[in-house]
Amino acid sequence: MVLSIPNGKDKKLPGRIMNLEAQIERLNKIGIALSSETDLEKLLELIVYEAREFSRADAGSLYIIENDRLYFRVAQNSTLDRRNGPNSGFKPYPLPLSEKSIAGYVALKGDIINIDDVYQLPDTVPYSFNPEFDVRNDYRTTSMLVVPMKDRDGEILGVLQLINAMDEEGRVVPFDKALEPLVMSLGSQAAVAIRNAKLISEIRGLFRALIQYSASAIDARSPHTAGHSRRVAAYATAIAKAINRENSGRFANIYFSDEEIEELNYSAWLHDIGKIGVPESVLDKKYRLSPETEKLIVARFELIKSLAVNRIYMGTIKGAKDISLANPKKDQEILRMKDEIQNDLEFILKVNRSGYISDEDLSRLRGIANKTYVDLDGEVRPYITEKELECLSVRRGNLTNEEYKKVQGHVLQTLKIVGNIPFTKNLKNIPFFAASHHEMLDGSGYPRGLKGEELPVQSRILAVVDIYDALTAIDRPYRRSLPPEKAYEILKSEAAKGRLDQDIVELFFEKELYKEEDDSFSKDSRKTHN
């Protein structure tokens, strides 16, 4: 149903705004534009803009129905924009879904309303015009065309409200009634586009949640890496947005679109997903030896001492003829033997916890490894096994070559896992970015040894923030947490060696982007050029 409410005066229209053929062509173009926009907020703005252009309306509003309420989502007004500047502080807000308001009536009844003058509504209609906006903004609303936005199933998703049709001389006139079916068609196209945009938004929200949950679950396998992916994503997003704000220097001509920031954000969340294949015993390795192995060695050395004492008292030492329980020489020999074994044990425990071992320490370790004892079964055993010696002989850190390769292998696992996800076209670079966070500009990184121009800005960003978080996060098994200023010195040193991007390092610290905690990306980060 179409309700046309004249003001009781005859006004001669300036003629059709455009002929029917031109209107249909314009409507088709609008439909194409609406179907290509998937960002809901942008779509709503586009719907109002195109409807205003189509109908030559000075202003327009859009309402969405959510949870049995009417949400005022978009307000555009050319007169106020010219007077106050664009986007003059409008904020969306909810309204009761009631027939008492014009928009509420259309939302509930599904009728088109075409009003010549909202200040001269007849008493027979259930709705009224609220002049509060006009009073507050010194504006005069006159003509109004309000249409429901119905989808293919006839469900009303919202209301499109057009205000003050303008003639060619810029005067306010009633909306041409010939526009009503066309604007209704536009409203239906808008409803379908809104439905699709909401569905895409829900799918993207689900996808984002799955990514974040999966990455967080893998991080949580170790208390030392919990929250790592979230922080890396926050830092990376902060750098990308900061680059967008740079208007001079190297980053002046680099701009990340919303889609590219989203792609970087997901890459950061997924960069360590391959650690699912790394054993927890390696991820959580605090010292060169595992706690279990350390306990085993302590118990073994106690056994070695007991066996040594037993051999002495039982006369098993070669050449012994007479054993006396009260023998000062034997007692001294036992004390010397026990001290020697205990000193070897204490040295092993010290080496196990030290950050670096010297050539001298390594030589003593090998000497201990060459010592043997006879166990209870009569088997000759070494004080420490070959595997234990290998672990203890690590010069710096706590991982053996084999264990280090397992850790490095997480990047290839990331590439394998993420590479099998069927990303959309705008997210196609995620596997590459996620798997290049350990690549260095000088080619010394892994897994592929990429360097220089082979590494895009996104990969360079991830390399910087991954190292920063590893340095400053909660104490890792192999070292203490560092303050930001100390981490800055280390990153600056790495950049000076040609391993990290110096400009990214400087931007990260100059702008204090390491304080960023929100890993979401906003849509207000566009760069403004003079």
Summarize the structure.
49% of the residues lie in helices and 11% in strands.
Helix/strand structural class? alpha+beta
Q: How would a crystallographer describe the biggest sheet?
A: 8 strands, mixed
The stretches of 5 or more residues where confidence is low (pLDDT under 50) are 2-6, 8-17, 518-530
Approximately how much beta-strand content do the residues carry?
5-15%
Question: What percent of the residues sit in helical stretches (DSSP H or I)?
Answer: 40-55%
Secondary-structure arrangement, i.e. CATH architecture of the largest domain: 2-Layer Sandwich
Superfamily at the CATH H level of the largest domain? GAF domain
Number of helices: 18
- Average residue pLDDT: 84
Based on CA inertia axes, which overall geometry fits?
elongated
Q: H/E element string?
A: EHHEEHEHEHEEEHHHHHHHEEHHHHHH
CATH class of the largest domain: Alpha Beta
Structure description:
This protein has 530 residues and is an alpha+beta fold. The chain has three domains: 198 residues, 2-Layer Sandwich (Beta-Lactamase), CATH 3.30.450; 172 residues, Hypothetical protein af1432; 108 residues. Helix content is 49%, strand content 11%. It is built from 18 helices and ten strands. The strands form two sheets. Strands 1, 2, 3, 4, 5, 6, 7 and 8 form an eight-stranded mixed beta sheet that branches. Strand 6 and strand 7 form a beta hairpin. Helix 2 packs antiparallel against helix 6. The longest helix is centred in the middle third of the chain and has 40 residues. The two termini are 50 Å apart. The N terminus and C terminus are likely disordered.
